[in-house]
Write a structure and sequence with these properties.
The complex is a heterodimer.
Chain A: H1 47-55, H2 72-88, E1 99-105, E2 113-124, E3 131-138, E4 141-148, E5 154-161, E6 164-165, E7 200-201, H3 232-238, H4 257-272
Parallel strand pairs in A: 6-7
Antiparallel strand pairs in A: 1-2, 1-5, 2-3, 3-4
Chain B: H1 5-8, H2 22-39, E1 41-45, H3 46-64, H4 70-79, H5 84-97, E2 105-110, E3 121-126, H6 145-157
Antiparallel strand pairs in B: 1-3, 2-3
Classes of the chains: A alpha+beta, B mainly alpha.
Chain lengths: 273, 164
């Protein structure tokens, strides 16, 4: 019977019923006595990891040109230079509120480089002049260092802790208690899975007594990350400066979705090469 | 003497200063937008019409998203002081301008106001309105005699192809 069926799987190929003749779709026609090569079943593609990556790809804010009357050629040329620099030097994804360690070149230091660890409180500038400010408290002295992302002096940017905060600008940490700005200089990087969402640190920061460098309770700053311990009448008085019509002023909106799409496509083409 | 040089320079400022304050400016423009949506053609000073144009077109862009959209409804609720016009905006104007990508309004200058101020006046209208058409400046078309003669001259002056 084994010889009768031409398309038979030979004995000992792992099927429970030996000698039975039946054809399976997964098996090739075997010519002669050679056993067909074992083909493992196809691996299932995990679609959600791929799709999530496509949607929430991070676009660094300095790529998005500001609204204005400048020639877009200027931003195009700058973007080309930024991409060139990114091909040579890795600028990781980070947000305001993440803890970074930056090593810069310093000709006067003993080992020619200088390392600073701090929390990113502000990301400013567009194009090649994009900067970020790191803050730390070293020996009871608050220190802020402003670095340019694309400067040739920076030798390494390492993200020790990747997280977001409730605000885009953490300048209020200057008036907060120093414990919220102290970070260990020899901190180890916090491990993180690739596909996890960026955690949002909803900490409410406690402030030093007034006066502050800016009146952070006013609605113009729109700060959500401070635990205001001011009396109620002071909070009500601050609302006097609120401008409720500003959210309905349609000409102030800047819709960047189409611009972002174009820039994302351009970046993925260039960096893929 | 001039106390602050910076206060007198307004390079790059796009918003005109109308009314008594920024709040008053928005209220003024809101009244004009409401009137435009109600009457579809209004006569106002040119500066106010020019400021209002941007807001009117953005309002129609928001309305095109549909009335189920929360943001569109809030914008329409703020900008239209007469609430029956919200229905007109979403049900009449949004479908009318759905095929167009932008520029839903037309702004034309008219002779200055008769009063003491001699203000520069303009008429602003929504395109596709049912009123009789305005006298728009006609651009020279190809069919005028002069253009036809010039076209013929250019064709004759062009070097002929290789003769057989």
């Amino acid at each position: 019977m084994a010889a009768a069926c031409g398309r038979l799987v030979p004995r000992g190929a792992g099927i429970a019923l030996p000698g039975r003749c039946f054809s399976l779709s997964g098996y090739r026609v075997s010519s002669g006595g050679k056993p067909p090569k074992f083909q493992p079943p196809p691996k299932p593609v995990i679609m959600d990891r791929k799709t999530r990556k496509e949607e929430s790809r991070f676009l660094s804010p300095e790529f998005i040109p500001p609204r204005g009357r400048t020639d877009p050629l200027k931003y195009y040329i700058e973007r080309k230079d930024m991409i060139q620099r990114r091909k040579v030097f890795n600028i990781p994804e980070f947000y305001v509120g993440s803890v970074l360690a930056v090593t810069t070149a310093n000709p006067y230091a003993s080992d020619k480089s200088n390392r600073f660890v701090g929390i990113c409180i502000q990301r400013g500038g567009k194009g090649l002049g994009a900067t970020f400010v790191l803050r730390n408290v070293i020996e009871d002295q608050g220190v802020e260092m402003c670095y340019e992302l694309y400067s040739p002096r920076v030798q390494a940017i390492e993200v020790l802790k990747l997280e977001k905060r409730l605000d885009e600008n953490l300048m209020y940490l200057r008036d907060a208690l120093p414990e919220y700005s102290t970070f260990d200089v020899n901190m180890k990087p916090v491990p993180r899975q690739d596909h996890e969402e960026i955690p949002v640190n909803k900490v409410q920061v406690r402030m030093k007594p007034k006066p502050w460098s800016k009146r952070w309770e006013r609605p113009k700053y729109n700060i959500k990350g401070i635990k205001f311990e001011l009396p109620e009448h002071k909070m009500q008085a601050a609302q006097k400066w609120s401008q409720p019509w500003l959210e309905f002023d349609m000409l102030r909106e800047y819709d960047t979705s189409k611009i972002e799409e174009k820039i994302r496509k351009e970046l993925s083409e260039e960096l893929g090469k | 003497m001039r106390l602050s040089v910076a206060a007198a320079i307004s390079h790059g400022r796009v918003y005109r200063r109308l009314g008594l304050s920024p709040r008053s400016r928005l209220d003024l423009l809101r009244n004009l937008v409401t009137a435009l949506v109600r009457y579809e053609r209004i006569e106002t000073p040119w500066a106010r019409a020019d400021e209002m144009r941007g807001y009117a077109e953005r309002l129609i862009d928001h309305a095109k998203r549909g009335d189920k959209d929360e943001r569109a409804m809030r914008m329409a609720d703020f900008w239209l002081t007469e609430k029956d016009l919200i229905h007109k905006l979403f049900k009449v104007l949004a479908p009318r301008f759905q095929p167009h990508a932008g520029s839903y309004t037309r702004l034309l200058q008219i002779p200055s106001r008769d009063g003491l101020d001699r203000a520069k006046m303009a008429v602003i209208e929504l395109k596709g309105n049912p009123l009789p058409p305005l006298a728009r400046p006609r651009r020279l078309s190809d069919k005028t005699l002069l253009n036809q003669l010039l076209r013929g001259y250019r064709q004759d002056a062009r070097p002929r192809g290789t003769p057989v």
